[in-house]
Amino acid sequence: MAQLWLFGGKGGVGKTTSACSTAIWAAKSGINTLLVSSDPAHSTSDSLNFKLNNTPTQVEGIENLWGLELDLEESLENLMPALSSVLENTGSGMSPFMMPNEDLNELKEEVSGLDSAQLMLPGLDEALAFDRLLKYVEDTEYDLIIFDTAPTGHTIRFLSLPELLEVWTTRALKMFRAMGGIKTMLFGGKQEKAIREELERFRKRVAHIRRVISDPKITRFTLVTIPEAMGVAETIRAEKQLSEFNISINGIIINRLTPDLDHEFFKSRREIENKYVNDISEYFKESSIAKIELGKSDVHGFELLNSMGLLLHGEHVDFPRDMNIHKISKNLPIKIRRSKLIEDRGDSSTIKLHLAGAIKEDLSLRAEGNSLFVGINNRENEIILSHLVDVENTSAKFANDVLNLEVPQPLV
Hints:
Layout: E1 3-8, H1 15-28, E2 33-37, H2 43-48, E3 57-58, E4 65-69, H3 72-79, H4 82-89, H5 101-112, H6 124-137, E5 144-148, H7 152-159, H8 161-179, H9 181-187, H10 190-213, E6 219-225, H11 229-243, E7 251-257, H12 264-283, E8 288-293, H13 302-313, E9 326-328, E10 334-336, E11 340-344, E12 348-354, E13 363-368, E14 371-376, E15 379-384, E16 395-399, E17 402-408
Parallel strand pairs: 1-5, 1-6, 2-4, 2-5, 6-7, 7-8
Antiparallel strand pairs: 3-4, 9-10, 11-12, 12-17, 13-14, 14-15, 16-17
């Protein structure tokens, strides 16, 4: 399981720049890093000057770095695959004369007053983003996943979503019943049952995601702000709201500080900003604080992002190739470990997997040829080895969140 590092804050304070520069810094330090964004404006691609899409893409020119911009419209369509068939097949093969006119008119009125916009519950788009994100958190290919979140208010809406899903589910089912009313009456409620089951599975996934992002062993949350009244107020408010969900802040980035130059305007501006910096430092005295001065140009492209990463985290480290926990970053220290290590000896292999939060009963092993499949909560990770896998004689030990596997080659 990868470590998750979320960057949040109000819009326009530099979350994307902070997330991108951190991702580049981590990758250059030898950490397998996935940079994820849910911004429909594709600001992450713009920041990197490199086009990302809806699947993890190796960032050209930077080893160990992959990027992903989530397509939430596609995720909504995949959430309830029965939706399209319900809408397309409504009334197919049926005669409207089989219902009284008054019933048909009532159905038409109900359908005309419903559309897909009514399904967009506040927080649903964030839920879809986190649902996709969890898939990659549970993928052992990545050591660190950096998530450039939507403005903090959106994240709070997502965290509140489990309590709202019951209302949303009722609204969704009403739409499907109206759209497929005739067919349901004639052929039964199989479609409605399938939709209800899909919604229930989604509700459980949302609850699981909230547990993951409130687990300090897996998730870190850094707030980005600027030294202005609204920025400080939003940051403090965000911390209070996140704490209600047991999410602690590991650090604060104060961005776009006026340079300390010998000029009356800059001195005056800096003096005002220092008051806000002191307010943040006092309120977040238990957290690490990184300060970034306003530069002479916008920060975008690999070179400028790399420079900002060095300001945030110090010189690149040589991340050890072991499964121990190591502290990284000078100004925003976090502790992480690798997700996977494989020692291949030809006739046998040693595999170590970091599976934070997993329990032994949720793990499974199976093999197909040279592939070993490690199941975690019914989601499998495929590990391809240089030899055939003898799963029956594979030894497995799970302790301290690390699964140790000794995989021999089958005897001929």
